[in-house]
């Protein structure tokens, strides 16, 4: 007789399950200091929430891209992004620079 296999419990919808699934990665790009953006923070759940809250507190624009976060979260802290990700990250940085420009002009992003 083979052992019974039980399905994994499915989290109940709500704040706790949403929070557990949330991921965030913070990048820093200083052309005078490095050739490519560097991963400065990453985490999931409550750590991700803290990263996002800190970004909001400092007026850092946030771009949501689950696929990019998935890839970037595999990098080590203080690691430069690999060349294969330059195009994707350039698109995010373009969004950030546009959002900063609009904020300076008083236009806001939402």
Describe this structure in words.
With 110 residues, the protein is of the alpha+beta class. It has a single domain (15-104), classed as name from scop (3-Layer(aba) Sandwich), CATH 3.40.1690. Helix content is 41%, strand content 12%. It has helices at residues 15-21, 46-57, 66-72, 86-104, and strands at residues 23-28, 38-44. The longest helix is centred in the C-terminal third of the chain and has 19 residues, at 86-104. The relative contact order is 0.15.
Describe the structure using short key phrases:
alpha+beta, single chain, 110 residues, 4 helices, name from scop, two-stranded antiparallel ribbon, 2 strands
Global shape: globular
Largest sheet: 2 strands, antiparallel
In CATH, the homologous superfamily goes by the name secretion proteins EscU
Query: Hey, roughly how much beta strand do the residues contain?
Result: 5-15%
The low-confidence runs, each spanning 5 or more residues with pLDDT under 50, are 6-12
Q: What percent of residues adopt helix (DSSP H or I)?
A: 40-55%
Compute the number of structural domains: 1
- Top CATH class: Alpha Beta
- Any idea of the CATH topology? name from scop
Structural class: alpha+beta
H/E element sequence: HEEHHH
Rg over C-alpha atoms, rounded to the nearest angstrom = 18 Å
Question: What is the residue-averaged pLDDT?
Answer: 81
CATH architecture group name: 3-Layer(aba) Sandwich
Number of strands: 2
| Count of helix runs | 4
Main sheet: strand order: 1-2
């Amino acid at each position: 007789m083979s052992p019974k296999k039980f399905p994994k419990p499915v989290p109940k919808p709500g704040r706790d399950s949403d929070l557990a699934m949330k991921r965030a990665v913070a990048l820093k790009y200083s052309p005078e200091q490095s050739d490519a953006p560097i991963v400065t923070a990453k985490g999931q759940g409550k750590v991700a929430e803290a990263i996002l809250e800190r970004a909001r507190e400092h007026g850092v624009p946030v771009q949501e891209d689950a696929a990019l976060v998935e890839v970037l979260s595999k990098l080590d802290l203080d690691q430069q992004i690999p060349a294969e990700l330059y195009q994707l990250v350039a698109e995010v940085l373009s969004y950030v620079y546009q959002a900063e420009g609009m904020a300076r002009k008083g236009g806001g992003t939402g």
